[in-house]
Design brief:
Number of helices: 1
CATH class of the largest domain: Mainly Beta
Shape: extended
CATH topology of the largest domain: Immunoglobulin-like
Strand content: 35-45%
Order of helices and strands: HEEEEEEEEEEE
Number of domains: 2
CATH architecture of the largest domain: Sandwich
Bound molecules: copper (II) ion
Structural class: alpha+beta
Radius of gyration: 21 Å
Helix content: 10-25%
Number of strands: 11
Length: about 160
């Protein structure tokens, strides 16, 4: 079969691009540990009282590892403030008790869909002290623009 050489060139160019993109995704996932937030389990959104989300907040697991349980509801994040020291590795468990929300931490790659009934987990290491604004990026009703929170990363005092 005769294939025009321009068409052949485009074919190999496209094939090359696919290989480059695939390699980039695999390198990010395997070498740099970049992963999308993953569903960790299911909960009954109408009754979170028997789950870890009954008392939303931050818990310290070890010197540098913290976990936070966050509930999104119309129209606030519970807790609205997460306080951790610089260098903390934060494991964020998050769910919604009503409709779908989105948890976006400005200035980081953290961007989590918050789905009623589903527990999402995302992890991030906060090396830079500062105040990180959290916004809801999924339209959830009249109070959506006010739905924000803060992650406060405190500088660590050298002893
Ligand atoms: Cu919203």
């Amino acid at each position: 079969m005769h294939v025009h050489r321009y068409e052949q060139a485009w074919f190999y160019f496209t094939l090359g691009l696919l290989i480059v993109f695939f390699s980039a995704v695999m390198t990010a996932a395997l070498a740099f540990g970049v992963n999308v937030p993953s569903p960790q389990g299911v909960v009954n959104p109408n009754d979170l009282s028997t789950t870890d989300f009954a008392e939303p907040g931050v818990r310290q697991l070890s010197d540098t590892v913290y976990e936070a349980y966050v509930v999104g509801r119309m129209w606030q994040w519970d807790p609205a403030e997460i306080r951790i020291p610089a260098g903390a590795h934060l494991k964020l468990y998050i769910t919604s008790s009503d409709v779908q929300h989105g948890f976006k931490v400005m200035g980081t790659s953290l961007n989590i869909m918050v789905v009623p009934g589903q527990v999402s987990l995302a992890t991030h290491t906060f090396d830079e002290p500062g105040e990180y604004l959290v916004i809801c990026h999924e339209y959830c009703g009249i109070g959506h623009p006010q739905m924000s929170a803060k992650i406060i990363v405190e500088p660590v005092q050298e002893p």
